[in-house]
Amino acid sequence: MAERGFVPDPLNLNRVMPAQGSTFYEVCKKCSPEQVSIIYYFGGGHMKLVLTIAGSDSGGGAGIQADLKTFSAHGVYGMSVITSITAQNTMGVLGIEDVSPDMVYLQMKAIFEDLYPDAVKIGMVSNEDIIKMIAKGLKDYNVKNVVLDPVMISKSGSYLLKPEAVEALKKELISLSLVVTPNLMEAGELIGKEIKNISDMKEAAKKILDFGAKAVIVKGGHLTGDALDVFYDGKEFYEITSERIDTKNTHGTGCTFSSAIAANIALGYDLVESIKRAKAYITGAIKHSLAIGHGVGPTNHFWNIKIREV
Ligand SMILES: Nc1ncnc2c1ncn2[C@@H]1O[C@H](COP(=O)(O)OP(=O)(O)OP(=O)(O)O)[C@@H](O)[C@H]1O
Ligand SMILES: Cc1ncc(COP(=O)(O)O)c(N)n1
Q1: Residue 155 in contact with ligand 2 by CB distance below 6 A
Q2: For the Pyridoxamine kinase/Phosphomethylpyrimidine kinase domain, which residue ranges apply (predicted)?
Q3: Does the ipTM exceed 0.90?
């Protein structure tokens, strides 16, 4: 059944695709979270572009790999600036090798001078020199719509940001961001106080906003009870909640959530709506997470896309 320029998926896979030549693109508003909810636009030339500046996770569950999968699951065109290469799997991080700051800048130049993104997500930034170079790139190319995930320590306990670089992250990147997405520990590091409850989360959001971000969402994934995140934009607090899913397979949740926010911003949703959509997406990705590997398995980035029944 064709509607508003869309035709049914020719493979009859319960997915809707745009009619040839259509310029219409949107995420399906009618679909329930359990249904196929992405409509792909294949008309060419109209895809939104989203960039991730982050570390590579060889295991594919977090970092650049999670970000690009998330972008694809939202029907946006994904690009990457790699800051560090990690040798990593579901059990831990075996090693980290940082990319040189000059090479980080060159990747940014290559992208911004040709494929200017509609939104940018920043994840693992590793050290002070890389942070300064990213800040320079964002200023040189007047980059807006930055979603900053201040990644510090992996779930498996490895430092992904050198502890002495926390100040540089605060000083150089937060003020260039549309929204910052710390988890409890990261919010605590940024404000120098342990975060234990919702009232602490609100206090942290306020203080981080004072560092110059336009908005902050403090994620409560590591609390108990419902998975409650606190959003603050300087005017209002929103508590964005979902059921807590009982699974150990949560590798890359933060990366996936922040990338989904960036993808939704690129698609044209306002910040609060982008966060609500990203929350629905990460909740589904955790619900359908993958019990692969021997440790903390990854989320399922394509849970909402029915590709083929097997
Ligand atoms: N078990 C869970 N059930 C439902 N939602 C969850 C669960 N764990 C995390 N979340 C949600 O996932 C999103 C990411 O939060 P989380 O606190 O896990 O980020 P993070 O610690 O930065 O992730 P990462 O360690 O992968 O960087 C938030 O919206 C959070 O509420
Ligand atoms: C390259 C990279 N970036 C981010 C994370 C955080 O993800 P998690 O906390 O789930 O390990 C990671 N492990 N690796």
Answers
A1: yes
A2: 57-300
A3: yes
- For this structure, is 31 an active site residue? no
Beta strands in the chain (DSSP E): 6-8, 16-18, 49-57, 77-88, 93-98, 119-122, 146-148, 179-180, 216-218, 227-232, 237-242
Nearest protein Cα to ligand 1, atom 19: 254
pLDDT at position 306 is 61
Is 224 annotated as catalytic? no
What is the reported pTM?
0.89
Determine phi and psi for 75, rounding to 5 degrees. Answer: 70, 25
For the Cβ of 223 lying below 6 angstroms from any atom of ligand 2, the answer is: no
Structure tokens at 89: 């799997």
Task: Find the largest Cα–Cα distance for the chain.
Answer: 58
Written as tens digits, the pLDDT of the chain (310 aa) is 333 334 444 333 344 444 433 333 334 444 444 444 444 544 455 789 999 999 999 999 999 999 999 999 888 899 999 999 999 999 999 999 999 999 999 999 999 999 999 999 999 999 999 999 999 999 999 999 999 999 999 988 999 999 999 999 999 999 999 999 999 999 999 999 999 999 999 999 999 999 999 999 999 988 889 999 999 999 999 999 999 999 999 999 999 999 999 999 998 899 999 999 999 999 999 999 999 999 999 999 988 776 555 5
219 flagged as catalytic: yes
CA–CA gap between residue 54 and residue 82 (Å, rounded): 5
Does residue 191's CB lie within 6 angstroms of at least one atom of ligand 2?
no
Which amino acid is located at 260 in the chain?
A
Starting from the CA of residue 248, give the closest ligand: 1
3 Cα to the center of ligand 2, angstroms: 40
Q: Which ligand is nearest to the CA of 251?
A: 2
Active-site residue flag, 28: no
Mutation test residue for ligand 1: of 250, 264, 288, the one with most atoms within 8 Å of CB: 250
Based on C-alpha coordinates, what's the Rg of the chain?
19
Active site residue 250: yes
